[in-house]
Write a structure and sequence with these properties.
binds guanosine-5'-triphosphate; binds magnesium ion; nucleotide metabolism; cytoplasm
Length: about 140
């Protein structure tokens, strides 16, 4: 079995979509094994998104992710990393397929950063790294 890190981003928490997002993940058959509402500090967010350092959207992305609490979860199941990415849909919410979290519930706003409700780790290496960052006791 496999684990992934899920974040309900600040837009999802603000819009009261935490339950809806976790519901879709659980309804698919995955198991939430850790769950915490958290205000992430800049160091944690910079480490989380280290792969994007130097890109033009890096500073706005950290600002957005720090603009309110997130809900962090560790989710478990066979092929869950791929599965959650599939449930989330494409990064750009305007074109994310209907039926996905982003496709059904997000859109593009006139803001500096793409607000797309949810994060899921993109590989086993990312998942291990991100789970260690957000849930060091696991
Ligand atoms: P995360 O789950 O947040 O990691 O999204 P992702 O894996 O679908 O996308 P990626 O890791 O490539 O990018 C992380 C975040 O940076 C995205 O969710 C967007 O908010 C933002 N982002 C990525 N690419 C772009 C881009 O080309 N332009 C802008 N403005 N923002 C971007
Ligand atoms: Mg990513």
């Amino acid at each position: 079995t496999e684990r992934t890190l899920v974040l309900v981003k600040p837009d999802g928490v603000r819009r009261a979509l935490t339950g809806e997002i976790l519901r879709r993940i659980e309804a698919k058959g995955y198991t939430v094994v850790a769950l915490e509402r958290r205000s992430a500090d800049a160091d944690l967010l910079a480490a989380h998104y280290a792969e994007h350092e130097g890109k033009p959207f890096f500073a706005p992305l950290l600002e957005f992710m720090g603009s309110g609490p997130v809900v962090a979860a560790v989710v478990e199941g066979n092929r869950v990393i791929e599965g959650v990415r599939s449930l989330a849909g494409a990064t750009d919410p305007t074109v994310a397929a209907p039926g996905t979290i982003r496709g059904d519930l997000a859109r593009t706003w006139d803001t500096a950063v793409v607000q797309n409700l949810v994060h899921g780790s993109d590989s086993p290496e990312s998942a291990a790294r991100e789970i260690a960052l957000w849930f060091p006791s696991l």
